[in-house]
Specification:
The complex is a heterotrimer of chains A (about 180), B (about 170) and C (about 200).
Chain A: H1 2-22, E1 27-33, E2 36-42, E3 47-50, E4 62-68, E5 75-80, E6 84-86, E7 89-91, E8 96-106, E9 111-113, E10 124-125, E11 132-136, E12 153-163, E13 171-182
Chain B: E1 23-34, E2 38-42, E3 57-72, E4 79-84, E5 88-90, E6 93-95, E7 100-106, E8 111-112, E9 118-119, E10 125-129, E11 142-151, E12 165-170
Antiparallel strand pairs in B: 2-3, 3-11, 4-10, 4-12, 5-6, 7-9, 7-11, 8-10
Chain C: H1 3-21, E1 27-38, E2 42-46, E3 50-56, E4 61-64, E5 72-78, E6 85-90, E7 94-95, E8 100-101, E9 106-115, E10 136-137, E11 143-147, E12 164-173, E13 183-194
Antiparallel strand pairs in C: 2-5, 4-12, 5-12, 6-11, 6-13, 7-8, 9-10, 9-12
Classes of the chains: A mainly beta (about 180), B mainly beta (about 170), C mainly beta (about 200).
C-alpha cells in the first residue's frame, strides 16, 4: 500500500512537471542603441536632442525590442525614476522630454510599421516617477497588428530632448530611465 | 656579493582635490583733467592822486601799494607787465608818460625789474618774471606790490586828468 | 488501479492543465542612466569702462553720475551656487606725466544692487557699503563692494540668466595744496568678481 502511494505521488509530480513546461509563455525585452543617455556638457539655455541624426526623420536614440510568443496584448512603459538631480538641485520635468518616433514588428523577416500603437508622438516631459504608456501592441488599425511577434519582435524607438533652463545651477545631473513591458 | 636593495618610495596624495575658486575682473580708466589756472587779480581798481598844482609831485601812490596776484598752474614761466592805454588826459590835454613812473617790490622768487626809474609806457613793460617753482604757484600765487609817481608839469593846463593802467600776465 | 488512485490522477491532471494554460502576468524591465553636466557661468561686465570727470579746478570737488543716478554698472553672472564677492581697487594714483593726485582723493559709492531678471528684485542688502554710507576712498587694496550671500532675495547665489547689477557713482577732489599742472590725470580701476 505504502509503496503504491509513493509511486502515485511521484508519477503525479512528473506529469505535472511535463505539462507545465510544455505550454508556458515567454516575453523578453532588450534595450538596443544607447543604453546610457549622456547629454554631455550643456550651458544654461542650451537645447539638445539625443538621436543618431537630428536631421534624419528616421533617426532615433535607442529602442526596445520586445519578443512575445503569445497572442496577448502587451504594453510598453517608460518613466524617469526622478527629475534630473544634482544634490538638492533638479531640472524641471518639462525640460527633459521624450517621444516615440517609430514602432514596427516582424514575424518572418518582413517589417510592418505600427505607429498607431505609439501613444506619445510629440515631446512629453518626464514627470518624476510617472509611468507613461509608450506603446500598445495589437491595437486595431489599418496595419496588421500582432501581439506575438516571434522571432524578430517589435521595436519601439525613442528620442530624447533636454533644454537647460536659463538660470540652472551648474552641476552633474542624473536620473534613470526605466523601460517596462507588461503582458 | 654585495646585495643591493632598492626601495621604492611611493607618495600618496591623500585627501580630495577641491576645484579652484573662480575669479574674473574688468578694468575701467578714470580720468580727470586738472583745469588750467592762469589768473591775475589786483586789490584796487582806482588810484586817486587828488588835487595837484603845476609843478607838484606825488609818489608812493597808493601808500599801501596795489597788490597784484598772479596764479598759474601751466608749468611754464610767466611774466607780469605794466602799461597804460594812453598818458594822463583831460580832453586834448595830456601829461606825458615821462612824468609817470612805477615802483614796488615782490614777494616772489623771480626777477623784479623795478629800479626806481621805470616810466609807465603805452607799451607793456616787464615788472616781474617768474622764478623757479613759480611755473605752478597754486594755491596762493605770486604777489607783487606796485606804486606810482606822478609829476605835474609846471605849465600844465588845469583839468581832471585820467589814465587806465593795465597789468598783463603772459607766458 | 483503484478508484481512489484514478481520482487522484484525474485531479492532478486537471490542476496541471489549468496551471499550464493560464498565462501568468509578466513584467520585464530595462533601464538607461541619464546624465548631463550643466556648465558653470561666472562672468563680470561693465556697461562703460571709461569714467571721465572732465575739467576740474584745483580745490574743487566733482561727482560723476548720470540722469539715471549712477555713473556705471557692474553686471555679475554666476550659476555655480557658491557665494561670490565683487571687489574694487585702484592700480595707482591719478597720474599725469609730471604729478599725481593721491588716490584717496578719488571716491566711489554704490547706489543700488538688484537683479537684471524680471521682476528685478533688489539685492541692495548685499552691498557692503550702502548708499547711506556715502562715498568711500579708493584704495590700492581690494575693497569689498557686494557679497551675494547677504542678498536675501538671491537664491543659491545664482544670478542667471541676465545677472545682478551693482550701480556706482564716483567723485574726485583735486587738491590745491600740491602742485598739479593743468593736465589729464588718470588711473585704472579694477573690478573683481571672486568666489
Amino acid at each position: 500500500m505504502r509503496l503504491f502511494s509513493e509511486q502515485n505521488r511521484i508519477l503525479s509530480a512528473v506529469i505535472i512537471f511535463f505539462m507545465l513546461s510544455g505550454t508556458g509563455s515567454a516575453l523578453t525585452m532588450t534595450l538596443q542603441g544607447n543604453s546610457s543617455l549622456d547629454f554631455g556638457t550643456m550651458a544654461p539655455g542650451d537645447n539638445k536632442q539625443l538621436t543618431t541624426n537630428p536631421s534624419d526623420s528616421y533617426a532615433y536614440c535607442n529602442k526596445i525590442s520586445v519578443v512575445s510568443n503569445v497572442d496577448t496584448q502587451w504594453n510598453a512603459y517608460i518613466k524617469a525614476d526622478s527629475l534630473l538631480t544634482s544634490g538638492t538641485l533638479t531640472i524641471p520635468a518639462d525640460s527633459f522630454q521624450w517621444l516615440s518616433t517609430y514602432a514596427g514588428f516582424s514575424k518572418t523577416g518582413n517589417w510592418y510599421a505600427h505607429t498607431n500603437g505609439i501613444r506619445y508622438r510629440t515631446y512629453t516631459g518626464f514627470a518624476s516617477g510617472t509611468n507613461y504608456l509608450a506603446y500598445t501592441s495589437g491595437t486595431s488599425d489599418l496595419d496588421p497588428a500582432v501581439n506575438d511577434n516571434i522571432t524578430d519582435g517589435t521595436e519601439v524607438q525613442f528620442i530624447y530632448m533636454l533644454t537647460i533652463p536659463t538660470d540652472q545651477t551648474a552641476g552633474l545631473y542624473t536620473t534613470r530611465i526605466v523601460y517596462t513591458v507588461t503582458q | 656579493m654585495k646585495r643591493i636593495i632598492s626601495a621604492a618610495v611611493i607618495f600618496l596624495l591623500i585627501g580630495g582635490i577641491s576645484s579652484a575658486a573662480l575669479s574674473t575682473n574688468q578694468q575701467a580708466t578714470f580720468t580727470v583733467s586738472v583745469a588750467s589756472v592762469f589768473e591775475l587779480s589786483i586789490d584796487q581798481g582806482f588810484i586817486d592822486f587828488g588835487r595837484m598844482n603845476p609843478g607838484d609831485m606825488k609818489w608812493n601812490m597808493p601808500p599801501a601799494g596795489i597788490t597784484v596776484q598772479s596764479k598759474s598752474n601751466s608749468g611754464k614761466p610767466w611774466y607780469l607787465k605794466v602799461s597804460n592805454d594812453s598818458p594822463f588826459s583831460s580832453g586834448s590835454n595830456t601829461i606825458p608818460n615821462s612824468n609817470f613812473s612805477w615802483s614796488g617790490w615782490t614777494d616772489g622768487s623771480g626777477k623784479w625789474y623795478g629800479d626806481g626809474t621805470n616810466q609807465v609806457s603805452v607799451t607793456p613793460t616787464l615788472v616781474y618774471s617768474s622764478g623757479a617753482g613759480e611755473e605752478n604757484n597754486l594755491p596762493n600765487g605770486t604777489v607783487n606790490h606796485m606804486k606810482f609817481k606822478l609829476k605835474v608839469p609846471n605849465n600844465q593846463v588845469p583839468g581832471n586828468y585820467t589814465t587806465i593802467v593795465k597789468f598783463t600776465m603772459t607766458e | 488501479m483503484s478508484l481512489r488512485a484514478k481520482r487522484f490522477f484525474l485531479a492532478a491532471f486537471f490542476a496541471a492543465s489549468v496551471l499550464a494554460n493560464t498565462a501568468a502576468a509578466v513584467d520585464v524591465e530595462q533601464s538607461a542612466d541619464v546624465s548631463v553636466r550643466v556648465s558653470s557661468v561666472f562672468s563680470l561686465t561693465l556697461d562703460t569702462s571709461t569714467i571721465d570727470f572732465g575739467s576740474v579746478r584745483p580745490g574743487v570737488w566733482k561727482e560723476v553720475s548720470s540722469a539715471a543716478g549712477y555713473a556705471n554698472v557692474a553686471a555679475c553672472s554666476s550659476n555655480t551656487g557658491n557665494p561670490w564677492y565683487l571687489q574694487i581697487k585702484a592700480t595707482g594714483p591719478l597720474s599725469s606725466a609730471t604729478a599725481s593726485i593721491p588716490i584717496e582723493n578719488l571716491k566711489w559709492m554704490t547706489t543700488y544692487a538688484g537683479s537684471k531678471n524680471a521682476p528685478y528684485t533688489s539685492f541692495s542688502d548685499g552691498l557692503i557699503h550702502p548708499a547711506a554710507e556715502g562715498f568711500q576712498d579708493f584704495s590700492l587694496i581690494d575693497q569689498q563692494v557686494f557679497y551675494s550671500a547677504n542678498a536675501s532675495a538671491m537664491v543659491n547665489n545664482n544670478t542667471l540668466p541676465n545677472g545682478a547689477e551693482i550701480q556706482f557713482k564716483y567723485a574726485v577732489f583735486v587738491p590745491d595744496t600740491i602742485k598739479l599742472n593743468a593736465d589729464a590725470y588718470s588711473t585704472t580701476i579694477v573690478y573683481t568678481m571672486t568666489e
